């Protein structure tokens, strides 16, 4: 499995495990981040370098807040996580499905890999 593919799945796991807990506004914000990222990947699935550039720009604008939210939400009770998963699970699944064709095509692209590392 390539490095970029591992990074993608680590990021998706973080969204699922961390992003699905906490207060409503923080949950919504993290799910929205994932949807934004999925839109960038989908829009640029035929141009991996452009995808990497746009993901890098997006990461520079959002990664600090994402990391702060992850830190804040990582210790929420399991019951809260389960409730959030029920509420936001379909949106996350849709974002992952939207992202997969582009990520699969561009997972070995250097720019995409660097952008993913910055998230």
Secondary structure elements and pairings:
Blueprint: H1 3-17, H2 24-43, H3 48-73, H4 78-106, H5 110-117
Helix pairs in contact: 1-4, 1-5, 2-3, 2-4, 3-5
Q: C-alpha Rg, in Å?
A: 14 Å
What distance lies between the first and last C-alpha atoms, to the nearest angstrom?
19 Å
Overall mean pLDDT stands at 82
Number of domain units: 1
Oligomer: single chain
Biggest sheet, open or closed, and with what strands and sense?
none
The assigned structural class equals mainly alpha
Global geometry: globular
Keywords:
single chain; 119 residues; mainly alpha; 0% strand
Verbal overview:
This protein has 119 residues and is an all-alpha fold. 82% of the residues lie in helices and 0% in strands. The chain has five helices and no strands. Helix 2 (24-43) runs antiparallel to helix 3 (48-73). Mean pLDDT is 82; it is low at 18-23.
In brief:
The chain has 119 residues and is an all-alpha fold. The chain has five helices and no strands.
